[in-house]
């Protein structure tokens, strides 16, 4: 499988364009991670890998956002160390209060070096919130089977499971919580939903087929505010240093 940097050097621009075109689509996804991080003003938050810096706008006022993103194809939003290798992390030991990682590590076959580096930079008593796709979930199947068959790079994720918890513990983390969190990606209508996924995942087939695949594999529903909700789900782990 291609690693994170190789993959997003190829299709990070399309991913970033989708996030800019639909900036509110994944609000619930970001908010569930931030809520579990229990952030307070003055905290220093390390975002790894940071993509295009989408998480920053959801942090409480007064938090200091530190970001690290190895792919130069994510060109916006002030990520602080774009283009450098993912590891080692570019910060001093015990310099961070909370580390967060959203939807990036399923592209790392061996996550243990990252977990060890995150432990190095987080202060004693600090936390890590890791939120990503769970092995065997409907989202994992959609990504590997549908996205992988129709995009420019394929898709073969190494998803979170019980081994992830073991690897975190081996790296020196204490597991505080592990939840499967269900939420929606929100859109004005089904056409916008399919267009977002088409661009986010750099799909090369037709949008109508993508819309049918979403309905069949993930499900969509009309929400109480009139928007269209695409069902999404991540495993979110909270660990202490």
From TrEMBL:
<dbReference type="InterPro" id="IPR013216">
    <property type="entry name" value="Methyltransf_11"/>
</dbReference>
<feature type="domain" description="Methyltransferase type 11">
    <location>
        <begin position="88"/>
        <end position="130"/>
    </location>
</feature>
<dbReference type="Pfam" id="PF08241">
    <property type="entry name" value="Methyltransf_11"/>
</dbReference>
<dbReference type="InterPro" id="IPR029063">
    <property type="entry name" value="SAM-dependent_MTases_sf"/>
</dbReference>
<protein>
    <recommendedName>
        <fullName>Methyltransferase type 11 domain-containing protein</fullName>
    </recommendedName>
</protein>
<dbReference type="GO" id="GO:0008757">
    <property type="term" value="F:S-adenosylmethionine-dependent methyltransferase activity"/>
</dbReference>
């Amino acid at each position: 499988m291609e690693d994170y940097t190789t993959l997003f050097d190829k299709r990070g621009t399309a991913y970033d364009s989708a996030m800019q075109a639909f900036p509110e689509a994944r609000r619930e996804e970001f908010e569930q991670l931030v809520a579990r991080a229990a952030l307070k003003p003055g905290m220093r938050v390390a975002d790894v890998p940071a993509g295009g810096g989408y998480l920053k706008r959801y942090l409480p006022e007064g938090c200091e956002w530190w970001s690290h993103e190895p792919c130069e194809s994510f060109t916006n939003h002030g990520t602080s160390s774009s283009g450098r290798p993912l590891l080692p992390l570019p910060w001093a030991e015990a310099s961070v209060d909370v580390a967060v990682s959203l939807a990036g590590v399923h592209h790392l076959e061996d996550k243990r070096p990252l977990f060890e580096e995150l432990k190095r930079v987080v202060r004693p008593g600090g936390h890590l919130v890791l939120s990503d796709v769970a092995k065997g979930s409907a989202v994992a199947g959609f990504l590997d089977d549908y996205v992988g068959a129709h995009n420019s790079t394929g898709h073969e994720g190494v998803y979170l499971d019980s081994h992830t918890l073991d690897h975190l513990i081996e790296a020196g983390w204490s597991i505080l919580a592990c939840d499967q969190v269900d939420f929606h990606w929100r859109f004005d209508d089904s056409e916008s939903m399919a267009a977002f996924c088409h661009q986010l995942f750099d799909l090369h087939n037709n949008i109508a087929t993508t819309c049918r695949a979403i309905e069949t594999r993930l499900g969509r529903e009309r929400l109480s505010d009139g928007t269209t909700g695409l069902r999404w789900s991540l495993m979110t782990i909270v660990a202490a240093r």
